[in-house]
Structures are given as structure tokens and as C-alpha cells.
Amino acid sequence: MEFHEYPDREMMMLRVAQRIASELGESLRAHGRATLSVPGGTTPGPVFDTLSGVDLDWSQVSVVLNDERWVGEDNPRSNTALLRARLLHGKAAQAKLIPLYADLPDPDAALDGLIDGLLPHLPISVLLLGMGEDMHTASLFPGADNLDAALAPGAPPLMAMRAEAAGEPRITLTAPVLRAALRVHVLITGASKRAAIERAAKLTPREAPIACVLDQAQVHWAE
Hints:
- By secondary structure, this protein is α/β, with parallel strands linked by helices.
- The protein is 31% helix and 20% strand.
- It has helices at 9-31, 45-51, 79-86, 107-118, 147-151, 175-179, 191-200; strands at 2-5, 34-38, 61-65, 67-69, 96-98, 126-129, 158-161, 170-173, 184-189, 217-222.
- Strand 7 (158-161) and strand 8 form a beta hairpin.
């Protein structure tokens, strides 16, 4: 991994947003389209705020979450709702959102349809990931029910995932899709996550799922 340390979080968020915008622009110029994959949660919110105002041909940009909780957008834990509020407005309102949720009681029943919707937008042009202190990324949690299958080279692009630390059932991008991304960034804050990612670099993906992308990742950190 290539490690980038910033003097403060504000500077890091701005620089990461500028880097992502530049890479999306490169993909648009080279291929006429781009796919951006981003994490949920509040940490990357300032990155989204900056990106939403960037001049890009957003109509040719597809956006997909790294993972989603199996809840509707009216639920406060919906990553999709957060994405609409922080990224998919302003200039970025023209981007195409690739859903990771369907109005079905069980994520397994929706997988085929969600995969069909995702496939035309792969590979990911720019991938932004987060990481938990347990070294999970997307919804690839240590000890999750389908972790081994999701790490396998032949894994489908999306899988349902259940883990004690996850709360609700999840839908997640799998390791082959993450590893196939053309550019990979990991955004983390705080001393405990710096220690965790340094530890993850010495572990297997089964022990530390973030390790599946670290050999190709730009890691961005601020206290």
C-alpha cells in the first residue's frame, strides 16, 4: 500500500475529493464513461460534498455503494439515503445510481437482479473504501457467514452477508470486484485505524478483509 498522511481531516477530505474527481475525468476522457464506488457512513461525507459540485460529465458516471444494509431508504441506517443527500445532488445529480437494495424481504432473493444491474458498469473506475477497527471493508466482516465465498477468485460480484458486527443483513461487493477496480483508495481517521491497517498488511484477507486490496491501494489517513 501507498500511505498518505495529512495534517488534518479537512485537508485530507479535500485532497481525496480532488484526486477522485481527477481520476473520474481521466476515465471519462479515455472511455466515455466511469464507475465510482463509495462507502456509506458519515466519514466520507465531506468528500461527497466537494465532489457534488465538481464539473464533470456526471451523466456518464455510474455510482454504486461498496455495500448496503438491507433496509429501505426511509430507514435512518440506509446508506443509499445518505448518498442521495450528500453526493447525488447539485452537479452530481445527473449520475446514475446502481441500486444495492430491492423491496424484498430477503437479500438473497434479490441478488440475481441486482447483479444484472451492476454488471454493465464494471470494472469500477475509482473505488473509495473505508475500514472498521476490526479490519472489515465493504461488508466483508471477519467471521461473516459468506466471507470465504466472497473472497474466492470466482465469487459473484455481489453477495449477501450476515455477521454479528453488521446488524442487519447486507449486500456487498465481493473481493474480485474490489480487486479489479482500476484505482483504489482507502480513507481512514484516528490512531486506532492507522494501527489496524498496519496490522492488516501482515494478515490474510480472511483475518483482515481489507488486506484483499492493500497491495494496490492508496491509503489516506489523518488523526
